[in-house]
Every structure is written in structure tokens, then in C-alpha cells.
């Protein structure tokens, strides 16, 4: 069982912005700090902008910053948006389903219950909660960013 | 977020056997009833055999049947075995992790909590619970199997 890399990148971008409140962040900096492709992050940042989680400021000195206070950004809600259909098994998607017992299968009902329990845990936590150990996270990220910059 | 097809196939095989208590089931029959490749099912059946969930009887008239009563087969335990490492995000695997904040990241802790909640729901249900509506499931599966056989 795995979340998409896209969701992972979206959450890392939000965390990076929450660690630099008010600052305009270049996606290049998130990419270097996390060692992730800039192209992948740009796609996530665009969606986060459309959803209002990020504010995108265009131009040469532009960048992104949080579009709302981190205390109001609920992790479970972000994951629902970035993961899309949350198709734990193929039968969750009626268009691609091939299973003949769809609709009468108690296993798919159980997977839905499990998924709700998973998301219920993520709904208890906000972006602000994820960065309460900000100094430790920043130290790690800045060290990695310096190494990446030096290597380029 | 998605479970592997392998887990899905393993659980469908177990359900099929639970619907035919005591009978020796040919993997070909599971494949036709569910419209799944026999090769994929054979791999899952082999692992289920090793784990004791299935008994494999070799030979021309051989097949598989449940290796233990369905009331004792807990869905969460099967999923833990068939999914392997349950790497919701890359940092769950220290060998492949590239994230610099591993070990101090509250997001990965949250994902672990969510995963535990997901599995806790699956631990409440046994294979026997999944087939309490046996006649409805059998009717659907047999109809699909007849269609598949006729097409071959």
C-alpha cells in the first residue's frame, strides 16, 4: 500500500513553506532541500495554488507561500485532494473494475472502512502540528540544500 | 493510495475457497470466476500455502482448499503478509529513502498511525465474515465463470 509520490511532494512543499512563514519560497529551494525533481514539485505547487493552500507569486522574484494559516490546513483534507480517487482496490473505480462481485463484496466495504480510519487519523493533524519541531527540520533541510547546491 | 493487485488476488482466492468449504479448488476456476490471470493467482496461492492459509494438493486432480477454518483467518494478518513492507511513503524503507528529514519528520509518524488504524479495521474481520452472503457471491461468480468458460 502506497501513497502517490505526488501527495508526498505536495505535503513536503507545504511543510517547507510552513517552516518559512511569510517568505516567498522558490520551488528550486524545496527541490534542493528535499532532493526532489523541480518538475514534479511544480506540478504539485500548481494544484496546491488552485486549492488555496499556496499563494503563487509570479515573476523573477516570485515564489510560493502558504495561502492560509498552517493551523487551518488539515493533512487528511490535503491527502484527499492530492490522491484523487483513493482507489485502494480496482473495484473502487466503476470504470476500470473487472471484479464480478462488485456491489455485494464485503471485502471492498471493509477496505472503505479501513480507508476512512486512515483518513480520520490524518484529519486530526494540521500542517502547524507537522512543524512544531521547526528548528530540527530546518537544520536538516538547510544542510541538505547546501550539499545539493554545492554539487550543482 | 492502493493495495497491490497481489493482495487483492490473494484475498479473492481465499474467499473463493471459503465459498466452497472442503472442496479442492483449481486455480483455473478462481481465474475464470474472477477474470484474473491464472499466473498471477498461482503466485499468490503458493504464498498462501506457505503461510498455512491454503493447503495445496498436487497432481492432476489436485487443487487448493483452506488450510485452516475461515473464522481463524484474519483479513489484516493476510494483508500484512501479502503487502510486505507496507511502504506508504518512500521513507518507510531506509534502503531506498532519499528524504533528509527522516527520523525527525512528524508526517511519517502520522502515516504510521494512519496505517495502524487502517489495519486495525481489517483485524476486526475474518475470512468467514467476508462470505456470510455466500449464495449471492456464488451466483455472481458462477455466472461469470460460465461466461469465461464459454468464451475460451
Which tags fit this structure?
2 domains; mainly alpha; elongated; 7 helices; 152 residues; two-stranded antiparallel sheet; homodimer; Arc Repressor Mutant, subunit A
Architecture overview:
Two copies of one chain form a homodimer. By secondary structure, chain A is mostly helical. The first copy, chain A, folds into two domains: 1-73 and 127-152, Winged helix-like DNA-binding domain superfamily/Winged helix DNA-binding domain (Arc Repressor Mutant, subunit A, Orthogonal Bundle), CATH 1.10.10; 75-125, no CATH class. Helices cover 55% and strands 5% of the residues of chain A. The first copy, chain A, is built from seven helices and two strands. The first copy, chain A, has a two-stranded antiparallel sheet with strand order 1-2. The longest helix of chain A has 18 residues, at 134-151. The model of chain A has no long low-confidence stretch (mean pLDDT 90).
Per the principal axes of the C-alpha atoms, what is the gross shape of chain A? elongated
Unreliable spans of chain A are none
Oligomer classification = homodimer
Averaged pLDDT of chain A:
90
Give me the strand/helix succession of chain A: HHHEEHHHH
Largest interface: A-B, 50 and 50 residues
Q: How many DSSP H or I helices of chain A?
A: 7
CATH fold naming of the largest domain in chain A: Arc Repressor Mutant, subunit A
Given helix and strand content, the structural type of chain A is mainly alpha
Give, in spatial order, the strands making up the sheet with the most strands of chain A.
1-2
Tell me the span between the first and last alpha carbons of chain A.
35 Å
- Tell me what portion of residues of chain A adopts beta-strand conformation: 5-15%
CATH class (first level) name of the largest domain in chain A: Mainly Alpha
| CATH homologous superfamily annotation of the largest domain in chain A | Winged helix-like DNA-binding domain superfamily/Winged helix DNA-binding domain
Main sheet makeup of chain A: 2 strands, antiparallel
The beta-strand count of chain A equals 2
